[in-house]
Design brief:
The chain is built from 19 helices and 14 strands. Helix 8 packs across helix 9. The longest helix has 17 residues. The chain starts with 6 loop residues before the first helix and ends with a helix.
Length: 455
C-alpha cells in the first residue's frame, strides 16, 4: 500500500523558518531530461512548445473563489507566454465534484489537465492507464524539482500519474471574535473544548464553538483515536482498531453533540448551505470553529471577513486540541496535477503544469492557493519574493510539526466519503439522528472500511 512516510512531515517542518526544504528537497537526479534549444544549447523544461500549432486545452479544478480567481489569472499569463495555446477552465466547489470527475475519467472524457486528489491515482487511474505517464514529458515538465519519494507516491504500475502540488493536514481554526463575545478561551484540550460548548450554549443556543459535517467527524474521530491509542487508523491494509476502540471514538463524537460543542447533522442540513464556508451561521459567527485542511482554509476566512451582518470578525489558526498522550492527525499529499491519457496535446498540458508549479510567473500568481509547494523551484520563488498567505503558512507549519500519523490511500475512497451515499456519511448521519448507537456505528464503519480496503 502506498503510504506517506515520516519524511513528509520532516520535509516541511522547517517551512516557515524560511530555510524550507519541503517535499521538493534538494535538486534530485530523477529521470527528467531537457529539450534541446534551436541554438544547440539546453532549454529549461517548458520553455519550448511542441510544434507551434494552435492547441486547445481544458483544465479542471475545484476550490473556493480565491483559488478560482488566481488560477484564471495564471491561465491568462500562460496564454500570453504561449499565444498558440488556448486553455478553457472548468471549475466548481467540492460538493459533487469527485462524482462528476470520476465519471469523466473512467469514461475517457476528462479535461486535459486535472487537479486531482492523491487517492484518485489508485481509485481512477485504471491500473496506470487513465492518466498520462508524466515521465514521458519531462522535457516540458521539470521533474527534478520534486523528490523521488514524492514522485513515487504518485505512481501506479511504475508510471507517474501526477505530480504532487503540496502536502497538507487538518488543523483547528477559530472565529476569535465569537469566542471573545462569549467570553471563553479558545480550546486547547478536551476540558476547554467542553467548557466552550457550555459557554456558547449559555450565550446563545444557536451558537456552537465547532461545526463538523459527516466527513469532518470521521477525520476528527480518527484524530481522537490516534491521540488516545497512538496507532495508525489503517495498518497493512486493515483497520488497526478494535470494535471497542472505535465505539469509544463514536461515543466521543456523540459527546460533542451532547455537550453543545457541535450541532447535529440535522441542524447543519437545515441551514440549507452547499458547504460550511457558505453557511450563514459560519459567516455570521454562530458556528465559531472548524477542523479543516491547511490548504483549504482561505475560503472560510474570506467568507467570515465578508460578513455583511457581522463585520470585523477575526479568523485565527488554533493550537492542536490535546486529546491524549499522542499527537493525533495525519499528513498527505493534498492534491496533484495530472494529464488525461486521452489528451491530444499531452506535452502542452505538461507545459501548463510546469508553468503553474515551477515557473516564476505562474508560481507568483497562484502562490499558496493550493498549499505550500512541493516544487523546490516554486518554494524558492515564494520565499525570495516573500509571497504566500500567512494563514496557510502558519497552519501548514503547525501541521507538519505536530501530525505524524500515516494516511492510507483508501481513506478518501469515494465509496467511503461520497455525499450522501458514502459509508462515512451514512454512519455518522445515522449516529447523529439516533438511528444507531455507538456500537452499531462502530460495526458499520469497520465493515464499510474493510470492504473498501479489500475491494
Amino acid at each position: 500500500m502506498r503510504k506517506i512516510k515520516q519524511w513528509t512531515a520532516m520535509s516541511l517542518a522547517a517551512v516557515m523558518a524560511m530555510s524550507l526544504t519541503a517535499c521538493g528537497g534538494g535538486g534530485s537526479t530523477g529521470g527528467a531530461t531537457t529539450a534541446a534549444a534551436t541554438d544547440g544549447t539546453t532549454a529549461a523544461a517548458g520553455e519550448t512548445t511542441a510544434s507551434g500549432e494552435q492547441v486547445e486545452l481544458t483544465f479542471s479544478w475545484w476550490g473556493g473563489d480565491s483559488r478560482h480567481a488566481a488560477t484564471e489569472e495564471a491561465i491568462k499569463a500562460f496564454e500570453e507566454k504561449y499565444p498558440n495555446i488556448k486553455v478553457t477552465p472548468e471549475y466548481g466547489a467540492w460538493t459533487g465534484w469527485e462524482e462528476k470527475q470520476s465519471l469523466n475519467i473512467l469514461g475517457g472524457n476528462s479535461a486535459d489537465v486535472m487537479q486531482i486528489n492523491w487517492n484518485w491515482i489508485e481509485s481512477y487511474s485504471k491500473g496506470g492507464t487513465a492518466f498520462a505517464n508524466l515521465e514521458d514529458y519531462s522535457d516540458a515538465l521539470d521533474l527534478t524539482q520534486f523528490t523521488p519519494e514524492s514522485l513515487e507516491l504518485c505512481k501506479e504500475d511504475g508510471k507517474l500519474m501526477a505530480v504532487p502540488i503540496a502536502l497538507t493536514g487538518r488543523v483547528f481554526y477559530w472565529n476569535k471574535t465569537a469566542f471573545e463575545e462569549v467570553g471563553v478561551d479558545i480550546p486547547t484540550d478536551l476540558d476547554s473544548l467542553y467548557a466552550a460548548g457550555e459557554a456558547f450554549q449559555a450565550k446563545d443556543p444557536d451558537m456552537y464553538p465547532l461545526a463538523l459535517g459527516e466527513y469532518d467527524r470521521t477525520i476528527l474521530m480518527v484524530y481522537y483515536l490516534e491521540s488516545k491509542y497512538g496507532k495508525n487508523w489503517v495498518e497493512d491494509g486493515k483497520v488497526n482498531y478494535t470494535e471497542e476502540e472505535v465505539k469509544d471514538g463514536m461515543d466521543f463524537i456523540t459527546s460533542l453533540e451532547e455537550k453543545h460543542v457541535i450541532p447535529t447533522i440535522a441542524t447543519i442540513q437545515g441551514d440549507m448551505a452547499d458547504s460550511l464556508d457558505k453557511n450563514a451561521k459560519w459567516i455570521d459567527g454562530k458556528y465559531a470553529g472548524i477542523f479543516e485542511w491547511d490548504s483549504a482554509a482561505s475560503k472560510f476566512k474570506s467568507a467570515l471577513e465578508g460578513s455583511v451582518n457581522k463585520a470585523g470578525q477575526e479568523f485565527a489558526v488554533g493550537e492542536f486540541v490535546k486529546m491524549g498522550d499522542y499527537n493525533g492527525g495525519f499528513t498527505k499529499i493534498s492534491m496533484g496535477f495530472a494529464v488525461s491519457a486521452s489528451s491530444k496535446h499531452p506535452k502542452e498540458a505538461a507545459m501548463l503544469i510546469n508553468f503553474l508549479l515551477n515557473e516564476e510567473e505562474g508560481v507568483k500568481i497562484t502562490s499558496t492557493e493550493r498549499g505550500i509547494p512541493c516544487s523546490t523551484a516554486g518554494l524558492k520563488i515564494l520565499e525570495e519574493n516573500n509571497l504566500g498567505d500567512p494563514l496557510t503558512i502558519e497552519a501548514n507549519t503547525k501541521v507538519m510539526n505536530y501530525s505524524k500519523f500515516v494516511l492510507d490511500t483508501k481513506f478518501e475512497h469515494n465509496d467511503l466519503k461520497a455525499n450522501p451515499d458514502g459509508v462515512y456519511y451514512k454512519v455518522f448521519g445515522k449516529l447523529s439522528a439516533g438511528e444507531i448507537d455507538s456500537t452499531q456505528a462502530a460495526q458499520e464503519l469497520i465493515k464499510g472500511v474493510t470492504e473498501t480496503l479489500e475491494g
